[in-house]
Amino acid sequence: MTVPITERGRQTRRRIIAAATQVVAERGVAGASLDEVGTRASASRSQLYHYFADKDELLRAVAEATNDAVLDGQRPLFDELGSWTGLTQWMDALVEMQEELHGRGGCPIANLVSQLGERDENVRVELASGFDRWEAEIRTGLVNMVITGELLSDTDVDLLASSTMASLQGGLMLTQARRDPLALRRAFDGALAFIATFRCAR
User: Domain range holding 178?
Assistant: First the structure.
């Protein structure tokens, strides 16, 4: 991988990654061609190979960009996760997003795992780090709820964060398969019911 030393070079690399991410999202990894990426990025073949040694290296950059896009898009919600209200608002926002998409698309990170996870170990590790970062945001919110007294002091926040993440991913998969956001809503309701068993009495 060539690291650009000029701002123009960095912009070109970002443009190529953005185009590749878009093409992969629309056509899948197998259907994503470098020619189409170059056309969308207004970049020549020589530019593609200047910044990326091959398609696999470009796909690793796509995985990293996908992680960042998914997580950065939730940043304002993550910042409020340290309360029951913030937790439910985060869940409601993700359900509303699926309603707007009519259940299409699923989780971008999970989609790449299913296509690339078994053929490129570096991509699998990168995508796993995206899930780890996502789960860490949930865990941080739960820790804050323990600190503020909304959850019991002996709450197993690791267990709750992992189970909530599993509910999210399972709900997204079923939503995508059924084209029904109610699947995610029910998965989150189950996660909330479990977390509620650790709430302090009011």
Answer: 67-196
SS3 161: helix
Q: Which two tokens stand for residue 6?
A: 């000029």
Residue 184 included in any domain: yes
Give yes or no: residues 47 and 79 share one domain: no
Burial 5-34 (b: 16+ CB within 10 A, else e): eeeeeeebbebbbbbbbbbbeeeebeebeb
- Same structural domain for residues 76 and 154? yes
**pTM recorded for the entire structure:** 0.91
Question: Residue holding tokens 């509620």?
Answer: 196
pLDDT digits (tens, 9 = 90+) for 51-95: 998 888 999 999 999 999 999 999 999 999 999 999 999 999 999
